[in-house]
TrEMBL record:
Family stated for the protein in its record: Belongs to the iron/manganese superoxide dismutase family.
InterPro entries assigned: Mn/Fe_SOD (IPR001189), Mn/Fe_SOD_BS (IPR019833), Mn/Fe_SOD_C (IPR019832), Mn/Fe_SOD_N (IPR019831), Mn/Fe_SOD_N_sf (IPR036324), SOD_C_sf (IPR036314)
Annotated keywords: Chloroplast, Iron, Metal-binding, Oxidoreductase, Plastid, Transit peptide
rRNA processing recorded as keyword: no
UniProt cross-references to SUPFAM superfamilies, sorted A to Z: Fe,Mn superoxide dismutase (SOD), C-terminal domain, Fe,Mn superoxide dismutase (SOD), N-terminal domain
Domain of life from the UniProt record: Eukaryota
PANTHER family (UniProt xref): SUPEROXIDE DISMUTASE, SUPEROXIDE DISMUTASE [FE] 3, CHLOROPLASTIC
Domain Manganese/iron superoxide dismutase C-terminal: residue ranges: 147-246
Enzyme Commission code: 1.15.1.1
Protein name: superoxide dismutase
Length: 265
């Protein structure tokens, strides 16, 4: 989920955080061998700096209405998500040891085995939000199909059971955080997990399939304090099971799940 722009101290500061100047990729870009390349617009060489860009949601900001409003996207993506990107970039200016990491690697390194470094919260929130926007689509919801549905029914007993566990996790999460459907590598099964604040399942080596932002700012403009209505509309109208299926197919390259045994009604 990482993305980088290349700049130097010779480039005007107004150009540093322009998301449209960046090339985005699912896995990020390795920059370690570029760290000390000199740049010469002046007689004084300056080191190359690598910055993350603000990635746009894969739909127009009003495309999720009426379940998530344009004004929510303008505030949540356009202001809060942007703030995490800018905060991370400012931190990276002060710590070139972290240059060259993909976003996944950056999160694991800065989590520091449960003793987070200063860069962790911004890095994780950038990743979490990119994943969240891509976990939704206009006219989403309904039910997953084919192999993903089979696996959900195998691991939760039924799709209804899965939804109940997901809703319960969202409503019982204390304070701010995220709810995830993940593939557990060691257990080789899907599970619903909840995380506090910026923490995401990458730090435990789980493979995220979908996520839901349950920080209050994610839903307050549209639902006030009715978190239950927000969660229901996410599952019924917003979640992208097509994207989740694609993520599951990729995950199966790393985890051998065998043949799902679909429960008999």
């Amino acid at each position: 989920m990482g993305s980088f722009c290349f700049h130097t101290s010779a480039v005007p500061s107004s150009h540093l955080l322009s998301g449209t100047d960046c090339t985005y990729g699912l896995g990020g870009l390795k920059l370690g061998n570029l760290r000390k390349i000199p740049f010469s617009r002046t007689h004084k060489a300056s080191k190359v700096l690598a910055f993350y860009g603000l990635k746009k949601p894969p739909y127009k900001l009003d495309a999720l209405e009426p379940y998530m409003s344009k004004r929510t996207l303008e505030m949540h993506w356009g202001e809060l998500h942007r703030g995490y990107v800018e905060g991370l970039n400012k931190q990276l200016e002060q710590n070139d040891i972290l240059y060259g990491y993909t976003m996944d690697e950056l999160i694991k390194a800065t989590y520091n085995n449960g003793n987070p470094l200063p860069e962790f919260n911004n890095a994780a929130q950038v990743w979490n939000h990119n994943f969240f926007w891509e976990s939704m689509e206009p006219r989403g919801g309904d039910m997953p199909k084919l192999g993903l549905l089979d696996q959900i029914e195998k691991d939760f007993g039924s799709f209804t059971n899965f939804k109940e566990k997901f809703v319960d996790a969202a409503l019982t999460l204390f304070g701010s955080g995220w709810v995830w459907l993940v593939l557990k590598r060691q257990e080789r099964r899907l599970e619903v997990v909840k995380t506090s604040n910026a923490i995401n399942p990458l730090v435990w080596n789980d493979i995220p399939i979908i996520n839901l932002d349950v920080w209050e700012h994610a839903y307050y403009l549209d639902y006030k304090n009715d978190r239950a209505a927000y969660v229901k509309n996410f599952l019924d109208h917003l979640v992208s099971w097509d994207v989740a299926t694609a993520r599951m197919i990729r995950a199966e390259a790393f985890v051998n799940l065998g043949e799902p045994k679909i429960p008999v009604a």
